Every structure is written in C-alpha cells, then in structure tokens.
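Two proteins follow. First one:
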Amino acid sequence: MKTLAYSIFTAAGITLAGGVQAQQDYPNKPVRIVYPFAAGGGGDLVSRTLAAELGRDLKETFIIDNRTGGNGNIGTDIVARANPDGYTLLVTTNATIVINPQLFKKVVTYDPVKDFSPISLVASQPFVLVLHPSVPVKTVPELIALAKAKPGTLNYGSSGSGGGAHLAGEMLKTFAHIDITHIPFKGSNPALIALTGGQIQFMFVAALAAMPLVEQGRLRAIAVSTGKRSPALPTLPAVAEFPGLETFQSDLWYGFLAPAKTPQAIIDKLNAATRAAVQRAEVKNRIEPSGTVLIGNSPKEFGQIIRDDLARWGKVITSAKVTPEY
C-alpha cells in the first residue's frame, strides 16, 4: 500500500510539475487567434498587428484565423469550446461578447462571461454622430430640442438592425426621451449615401467612415459616442458631456480573450505582452490615425467592462424592443 501511495503521489507530482513547466514554456508552438469577421477593415488590422507584436515578444508564431459567419458568433463559439491551453485565442468586438448574446438568444450558444477568460481590452473606436448639413443644429442639445419640437419627423440610419450604430441611436432616444425613427440599411456605406443625399437626417457611424465626409463638408459631426472625448478627435465633445446624458457610452471595442479555465500564468503572460504592444509608437502610428484608440488594461478591468456593458446594453435592447434578424 505504501508503494502504491508513493507511486500515485509521485505520478501526481510529475503531472503537476509538467503542467507548471508547460505554462512557463508557453508558447512553444504556433498560437491561433480567431478573428470572427472577414479580413480587411479596422478590426482585422488590430488583430493582425497584435499577432505580429505578440509573435515578436513571445518568440513564437501567432496566426490570425478569420472565421466568419453568424454575425461573428461562429468564430466566437469556436474559441469558447477550444481547449483552454492558450493555443486558441480570440480577438473580437463587443458585438459578439455583449450585444449578440442578448439580441440573438436563440442562436448564440456561448456565455460571454462563463465561457471566456478576459486577457485585455485592446482598442476602442468611437461612433461619430453626424448630420446632413441641412439639419439646423450644431450640438447634441440642439438636436434633442429639434426632435422634441418635431416628434416623429427625424430619421436616423444605421448599418443594420441590432448593430452598434443602431443601438447607439436607440440609447440616445431612450436617454433623451425623444421620438425618432430608425431606418436600417445593409451596411454603413448605403446608410452614408442616404445621409449625404438627405434621405435621412443623422446617424452614428464609425469614425473611420465618417470623418472623410465631414472633412469634405458633406456631413456635419457634432459629437462622439464614447464616455469622454476621443484623443483621435479631441475637438468633438462626447455625448456624455451634456446634461441628462452623463452615462451615455457607445463605442466599438476590440477585446482579447481566451477560453475559460485557461491557466492564469498564461493569461498574465499574454496580458503583459499585449499591454507592451499597444504602448509602442510604431503600433500607435499604424492604428490610431484611423480614429481607433489603443488601450490595454488588466484582465480584471476588462472583465468588469464586459459585465458593465452587458447590463447597459441589456437595458437598451429591452427598451428599444429590437427585433433580431436571424
């Protein structure tokens, strides 16, 4: 019996030591980062830049795997079900972690809190509130006053029902108690064409798409949707600066996550490398001219952001009675 017990404890010790050694040696083979949207665009640039920086710092290959479909749900679910060993990771947006699980409850199979271990919030891009030049307002309070004076007559567009731009408009509608009408389009470009043509009056849209039209004088920008002014667009006030809108916050963020139960030592190593990467001047110069702000924070801080956003957007989705498009 003593010999058997000794053998069992010895085997357990070897297994434990092997696990610790594996974490210390991490990574020792290529790492896959799933980005659940198509190649191209701001998010793909963020994910590929991060992968390159991690590869440089951690001396291993980090490969971006674009797994599209289901509004980002397919790729996100792949990571939720992956082995929690640090070799399958996720860079995604708040659409798949915060909005989709509440909007598409019948088809989303992962839990945004239970199925993932946050690593770091990587970056954030504000929506810009833009108007057709014929709309006679220059500030958010003036827009609200106009909407209250002419209820039901102002139309705002978005890239599609249930997207971040749509819900930003619904958040404004809810917070300001105004009667405005949502007009969904199949993408931000058709919505912007309608806005520049005067067919709709205003919309929230990503800074990267909005600012060229603002600079050309075809649209008027009056605010950003983030909780405070964007360093990339410092002259534009935040919606939250105005009375009654202090808790308004709607942005497009990019987060780095691992499957739940990934060893903390691996999470910490990835977090440290991520935070170092987003502070580099060459990375900032590549990413931030698009209006995207690089962040980098702790796993605990990122986890709290996810929980806070779930609560905030849950209220907006319920209040707006958004009908999901399956």
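Second one, unrelated to the first:
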Amino acid sequence: MFRKKKTYVILALIVLIIGGIYYWKTRPVKIDYTTETAKVGTIAKTVSATGEIKPEIESDLAFKLSGRVEYIFVDVGDNIIKGQKIAVIDKGILLEQLEQAKHELEAQNETLKNMKNRDGTYNHAQREAQRAQIKESEGAINEIKKQIGDTVLYSPMDGIVTKKNIELGENAVANASVLTVSSLGEPFVQLDVPESDIVDVKIGQKAMITFDALPSDEELAGEVFEIEPASTVISDVVYYKIKIKLAKLDERLKIGMSADADINTAEKNNVVMAPIRAVKNDNGQEYVEILKSDNITEKINVKTGLRGDDGMVEIISGLSGGENVVVLTNEK
C-alpha cells in the first residue's frame, strides 16, 4: 500500500514538471523595448588633452665655462631686462694667465724692436716670423679676455626668471642651464595628445580650454597652430605635443598653469543622428529597429557617418528624424 502511494506521488510530480516546462515554452513572451528618438541637430567629435601654459619665448641661460658660482643677482619671479647681469662664476687662473700672456707679448715686442735695431743681422723673413709670434701672443690675450667675459652671465632678453637650477657656491657646468628666462608675450597652451587621437588633430581646429586656477565653468577659446612631428614617450605611452594659441590674453594666466582642452576635430550641423547602441550589424549591413504601434518593431537598414562624443552617431541614410529606435530589448 505504501509503495503504491509513493508511486502516485512521483507520477504526479513528473506530470507537474512536464506541464510546467510545456507552459514555460508555449506561454506568450512579453517583450519590453527601451527606445530613444532619432533627432536632427549638431553632432561633434572632440579630442581631450592636458598640458600647461608655455611662454612665447623661453631661453635657458648657461655659462660657457665651468666654475664655482660667486654671485647670483636674480631669483625666480624676478623681472629682468636685456643685458642685465645675472650671475658670475670665479675666474680661476684666467687672471694669472692674462698677466703671463701680457708679459709674453711685451717680450715678443721687445724682440722685434731689437731685430729692427740690428737690421743687418736679421733678414726680412726672420722679422716677419717675429711679427707672426706677436700676433699669436695678441690672439692668446684676446682669447683669455673672452673667457674672462664668459664668467659673467647676462640676460639675452626682457622677461621673467622662471627657473633657477643652481645656488650660490655650487659648481656650474659648462653649457648646462643655470637659469631660465621667459617672455610671456602671447603665451600658448602646450598639450600632450596620445597617438590614438593625434590623427584627428589638424592645424586651425578650434578648442575650448579650462584651467585649474580659474573657475571650472569658465572656458577660454583657442586654436591649434602647431603640431610637433616627433613623438614623446611618457610612462611608455606615445604622445605628440601640440600648441594652441589663445584667442584672447587673460592677465590671470601664469606660465606653468595646468590646462585641459577639448579640441573640436569634427562637427556637422542639421544631420540626423541616433544613439550608437541602437545601430546593429548583420554581415556588414548596419541597421536599426524602429518601434511601431502594438509593440511591433521594423528593421531599417542605415548608413552611419560621424561618431560624436555624446554616444550619438550620424545617420547618413535610412532615417529622417523622429523615429523611436530600439536601444534595449528585455523579454519577460
């Protein structure tokens, strides 16, 4: 008796399971569609990059000789004028060498004088050779004087000291920058653009720039005027430097300020556009689904164009605007 009852229970469960599966497979499926409206408007593509304000003219100042710094007459932030004395290094043994060279010249001149007084003893060639020795001594003096002059550093232009790489008493290395002088003039923004974006950037393109030092909602207009052909590697990523000229100089801007720029690389007006996620691909043919009445969809082949920054894509053909395109399908 117990075994028969158990068998009936098992059979009942099997029937319920089979019935449930049949119902699940044969039940009407309800589909919810999420749509967005295709519209006519302006679509734009931008390249974003970061950088800083650079001066119009920048000059690294260096001594031509090595030596210990005896005087520094300026500091970072100082305004200077062209020809102003900036720094001095010690002259070492140059003064002693100059005195020795002068004595040598005196001796050579005295020798020529004696040769002239003993005209019968020395021929013309010997006197000319002595004159050559005198010229050589004069050249040595001039060279030492030039080196003494090179121990003093002068500013080549009007500007402001933006960097100081050495302190009083330290040793300056020949041709190594000790100070940087910048002339603000018409400053520009220098940006690092990754190689994946640089192909879209062209000279003459407009840009909107924000600065960390200014209010976040304040943008300044600019225009790309230079693209460096050589790359720069930063943290194993390849970048290209571009320069943007500001449309208007703002007195609040300072050299070195951080900047963020959006460069308008492409823009089209009065075009039909739809969300990129609404466009599907079937064997190379792009299409969208339009939601019509009674929750019915229609497949429409389209041709796309410019992809914008806001998730929209230009629809060159297939839509005219106003259609409800499906972006998400959910079965219930």
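SUMMARY FIELD: Helices lie at 2-26, 94-117, 124-149, 195-198. The radius of gyration is 40 Å.
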